Amino acid sequence: xxxxxxxxxxxxxxxxxxxxxxxxxxxxxxxxxxxxxxxxxxxxxxxxxxxxxxxxxxxxxxxxxxxxxxxxxxxxxxxxxxxxx
Length: 85
Fold this sequence. Notes:
The protein contains 4 helices and 2 strands, in the order αβαααβ. It is mainly alpha-helical.
């Protein structure tokens, strides 16, 4: 997070992510405090996600989050690997 292409390119071959260590968030049961702890999710985003879920019911797929006015495709692309539906 926060690293531009110029800095990343020289070290790209040395960087990898072991996805088996990613802890997924159950988007339909997570509470505000837990969702707000995620580094990619602001308190405002956590709040609207929880409020939308409370008003409209469970999310069944990632694209359901795009129904929330402040959620865009770029944000969804960043957080989708961390979510469980």
